[in-house]
Amino acid sequence: MPNGIDFNEWLASHTISIFDNTNLIYGTVSEFCTISGCPDMVGPSYRTYLWFDEKGKKSRVAAPLYIDYVMTFVQKTINDETIFPTKYANEFPVGLEIVVKKILRLLFHVIAHLYHSHFRELVLLNLHTHLNCVFAHLSVFNHRYQLIEQRETEILQDLVVALKILGDDEETATEVNESIDEYKDVINKEPTMSFADQPINMFPNPSPINTQTLATQIDNF
């Protein structure tokens, strides 16, 4: 983080950026994320995400409904002047980091669902690299400030290694090779739209993301 920058301002700016880009990418495939096609909000390893309402009641909802709840909640939160102030002299609340942690956790769920259920569509639309960049941004930012619990992020750890987001790790790389088979059934399933029929590789010769450059950009954003 650059000298002289308020930590809360730093958290807020990156959180809003990650939200905007995640929302934009989901919007490109939202018409294929339907109640019938995605009856549950799931991520890799078929992890199911339950929605908790304002009263703490959890419910199992279809992916498009869950994501709509997420985007509505985040948009409403970042538009709240008492939480994400934009006017001069207004200060961030003491509990901003708690709010940011919740937002990033929910956005991670959306990204996990995109990889699990809609990566094929994103590849066919040539938008998968954009998703990878947003995921890299979230991963490096989280790695730097530990904002999402490891039990949440572990389901995409193999992708972190495959894209070389946080550097090389031979032991973890071995785990990636063993877990890629899990994605084959997802990627090779019949698409939900009339694109040309072609096999899709979850990791199509991924080019390493320059971790040092990305970290520098986050530090000097």
TrEMBL record:
Highest taxon in the source lineage: Eukaryota
Binding-site residues for Zn(2+), renumbered to this chain: C33, C38, H113, H118
This protein's UniProt keywords: Metal-binding, Zinc
Pfam family, one: Mob1_phocein
Keyword check for Metal-binding: yes
This protein's record includes keyword ATP-binding: no
Residues spanning the membrane: none
Protein name: MOB kinase activator-like 2
